[in-house]
Write a structure and sequence with these properties.
By secondary structure, the protein is α+β, with helices and mostly antiparallel strands. It folds into two domains: 34 residues; 187 residues, Lipid/polyisoprenoid-binding, YceI-like (Lipocalin, Beta Barrel), CATH 2.40.128.110. Helices cover 17% and strands 45% of the residues. The chain contains three helices and eleven strands; from the N terminus they run αβββββααββββββ. The protein has an eight-stranded antiparallel barrel with strand order 3-4-5-6-7-8-9-11. The protein has a two-stranded antiparallel ribbon with strand order 1-2.
Length: 229
Amino acid sequence: MTAYSKALRAILRVAAAIGALAATGEIIRGQPAPTAAPAVGDVDLAGSRVYVFVGKTGLGHDHAVVGSLQAGRVRLGAAEQAGTIVFDMRSFRADTPEARKLLGLDGETDARTRQQVDDNMRGPSVLDVAKHPTATFEVRSALPATQPAANGKTAYDLVGTFALHGVARPVSIRAEAEAVGPFIRLWGGFAIKQTDFGMKPYAKFGGVVGVADELKIYGDIRVVSGAPQ
């Protein structure tokens, strides 16, 4: 076989391999294969947020924290294995204008102070995100509430286990639901104590300045409904 023939056969083998990949969608004009379309129950990560109200002690200040989700799926109406919501603890930021406004706190916090609060919050004494980069809500059931929300909206009771900082505790959340385009928007909250999850509430000057043990956590989560836009 001549060198020319060998080279031609090699080229044909490469062309056949590329054609097979293109047929399976793995290569299309040099682009990666498209991701699967969102399924009913998938959480819209871009449009979902978590907010935390942190109260003050002594001469401290109230804080409003916002964070993102890393992954999520909720099967509304399911009586068991209703889903999982994963919080990206590394994304949490304190006292952004958005978070303060949503949680009803007046005024703004300068960038330097926000950074100091972030460092304390994500540091080893509190969230310790280097060791615990995520928190998880394992949703056991997501059944319609027997009573509607006070404002007349449909509501669901999300019951399951919340794992934070390496500790898991049972939680139950009443979440209001409303249709927003192709999503069901869920809004609800629950309270925890930092010490119940092995965390130490921030304090300095012997406790003259600090934050409360209780945290109020709110979810503003959008779940794919399958409804037409």
